[in-house]
Amino acid sequence: xxxxxxxxxxxxxxxxxxxxxxxxxxxxxxxxxxxxxxxxxxxxxxxxxxxxxxxxxxxxxxxxxxxxxxxxxxxxxxxxxxxxxxxxxxxxxxxxxxxxxxxxxxxxxxxxxxxxxxxxxxxxxxxxxxxxxxxxxxxxxxxxxxxxxxxxxxxxxxxxxxxxxxxxxxxxxxxxxxxxxxxxxxxxxxxxxxxxxxxxxxxxxxxxxxxxxxxxxxxxxxxxxxxxxxxxxxxxxxxxxxxxxxxxxxxxxxxxxxxxxxxxxxxxxxxxxxxxxxxxxxxxxxxxxxxxxxxxxxxxxxxxxxxxxxxxxxxxxxxxxxxxxxxxxxxxxxxxxxxxxxxxxxxxxxxxxxxxxxxxxxxxxxxxxxxxxxxxxxxxxxxxxxxxxxxxxxxxxxxxxxxxxxxxxxxxxxxxxxxxxxxx
Length: 424
Hints:
single chain; alpha/beta; Rossmann fold; 8-stranded mixed β-sheet; 5-stranded mixed β-sheet; about 30% helix; LarA-like N-terminal domain-containing protein
């Protein structure tokens, strides 16, 4: 028996029970119809003139129906006589290569066939301006040469800073369309300046390039479309902050303010830019954002296949598994940190052979005197919080969300390799 096995073998694991959370959840029943209705606002599509080449910027991960929204925008532009094409707008993601970014679009369900428009992918950029502090402002070379630009993105709280503009249309202009060089420039002075740099870069792009409009999406706590808004270029700066406040109000949450152990089954770039949303876990990669629960020890068990080995975010956990490390593409992960200048989330935490050992390690080190009463929560990922498992001890606590107990407490099941087999 190894030293680690001896240290962990007698650590008790709690019985757990599945619970179901209920959140306020406005929902768009017919997303294609909602996109068409938003685009039908008087004067919006009139900006598209016959024969105009229109770059449609898309590429953020984890957005429900992003392929459907993209298809509808393409169809609307073409119906006006425009010549639409897609450009991947995702900063340095996809390994910071054109082929990798096209592949990311495919994972999102966006291909030339599904969207009905060609994809023009490049990492080449054009400098379109410079901030007063000297930082350059870049835009995708294909988009910069187009007669018109449309951006599509979800509006939501950022994971590393707070401001009037966080994740949304302005960030898509400043960072997504800027490709690797633009993302690097925006991050150059750190996240402490991002609340200033994102809108400043966005304003330059709006002023100097033919941005036609943006399609902003807000999602509810169940990862469903709650609102579709089409904003003309000159409305984006004024209207986006209200959409951000709406998104914050709809954000899902864990049911308890304090936990001894949080176990996250999977992280990935398809879930959050940080692999897992710090707004949910309370573990932020920078000191410029805060909120969420207090978690003593956090475990990450796996990385999604769609993340293609990019395990950015795992460094904010205390423990992980050899399975995740074996899947990790360090080049893609490290490229994320080198571009954002935040390298902590790319580090590999203490790595244990299997799920059981990783969870035992978290329980052992959670600084609770009575480990039989450990307060443990197990979630699939930070996008799906409707169902989760909690330890038996938490049943006596009052949750901060509406919560229904499903089933009865039982020991955590593991397979022959020590990996968890709970179902969702």
